[in-house]
Specification:
By secondary structure, the protein is mostly helical. It is 78% helix and 3% strand. It is built from nine helices and four strands; from the N terminus they run H-E-E-H-H-H-E-E-H-H-H-H-H. The strands form two sheets. It has a two-stranded antiparallel sheet. A two-stranded antiparallel sheet has the order 2-3. Helix 1 packs antiparallel against helix 6, helix 2 (50-119) packs antiparallel against helix 3 and helix 7 (264-273) runs antiparallel to helix 9 (284-296). The longest helix is centred in the N-terminal third of the chain and has 70 residues, at 50-119.
């Protein structure tokens, strides 16, 4: 007997039952049965109207559009927040940096003035030139410090203007996108419904032909059609006969084909825990059990 390889305990027991019925049950003679004529019902389908298609398409897209708008606005708001924080940070950095430079140069000038006063040379041209140099260096350092920060501030301010404009225009932008997607969805749905109409018509047109072919088959085969059914005999088939006809061979092959997919320990546990297998293996159960026990060792 040919049988599929089991992939689970339940499937193995099912196949064992089929093998048992195939070899150990007897069939009576075929008995005639009367088959009923084929009765098929036509499919009914009405394509949605254009208004219904618009409503369906809108319903399918509306939720996704709302989520996209919320996501888009949230991303823009997060960027605006980050840019605003950066702008505040750079302005504070600029103010503090300039103030620190001014304080540094003021301290240096004051020390120089005090030095000149101690020596009585405050009106000396060299002292005056040195004080002017302090002021020039301060201006130069302040400009060098401010320039990259002011460039960055200008850039960030431009980005903030752009982001705020996008946020203000988000609803209008997505309305335009939604209208385009809606038209595409309406076309897609209409094509799907048209295909369904064609398929339904094709199916319905084939029903009469199928019904006629089936009726002809009943007429031709009805007189000779027989079904077999199985009945358990009162006396069991001798073990020697079961061996000869291959019953035990198929049972052992069925069980082994599943157990061999497992490791030795799992296979042994399946044999010990599923006592139903004994009913199919009879005396060969202990032999098979011992064989898998040896594999563990």
């Amino acid at each position: 007997m040919e049988f599929r390889t089991p992939t689970s305990i339940d499937e193995m027991e099912e196949i064992l039952g089929e093998i048992f019925c195939y070899y150990r049950l007897r069939r009576e003679e075929y008995q005639k049965v009367e088959l009923q004529p084929l009765r098929l019902s036509h499919l009914r389908y009405t394509k949605p109207s254009q208004q219904q298609i618009v409503e369906i398409a809108t319903g399918q897209l509306a939720g996704a559009q709302k989520r996209e708008i919320l996501k888009y606005k949230a991303e823009l708001s997060a960027q605006i927040k980050a840019k605003t924080a950066l702008l505040e940070k750079r302005n504070a950095q600029l103010e503090q940096g300039v103030k620190k430079l001014e304080e540094t140069y003021d301290n240096a000038k004051q020390k120089y003035i005090e030095w000149a006063q101690k020596r009585g040379v405050t009106s000396n041209s060299t002292v005056e030139k040195t004080l002017i140099d302090y002021d020039l260096k301060l201006v130069k350092e302040i400009n060098a410090f401010k320039t990259p920060i002011e460039v960055e501030i200008a850039t960030v301010e431009g980005e903030l203007i752009d982001l705020n404009e996008k946020l203000q225009n988000a609803d209008g932008y997505f309305d335009e996108v939604f209208q385009l997607e809606l038209e595409n969805k309406k076309t897609e749905l209409s094509e799907q419904y048209d295909k369904t109409v064609r398929d339904v018509n094709k199916y319905n047109n084939s029903l009469d032909e199928k019904t006629q072919r089936y009726d002809n088959t009943i007429i031709e085969a009805g007189a000779s059609l027989k079904l077999k059914y199985m009945q358990i005999e009162q006396e069991p088939i001798p073990k020697e006969e079961l061996v000869r006809i291959g019953y035990y061979r198929d049972v052992i092959n069925c069980v082994s084909s599943y157990l061999d997919t497992l490791n030795a320990l799992d296979a042994y546990e399946v044999l010990t825990e599923n006592k139903n297998i004994i009913a199919y293996l009879d005396d060969f159960y202990s032999t098979l059990l011992y064989a898998y026990k040896l594999r563990i060792n």
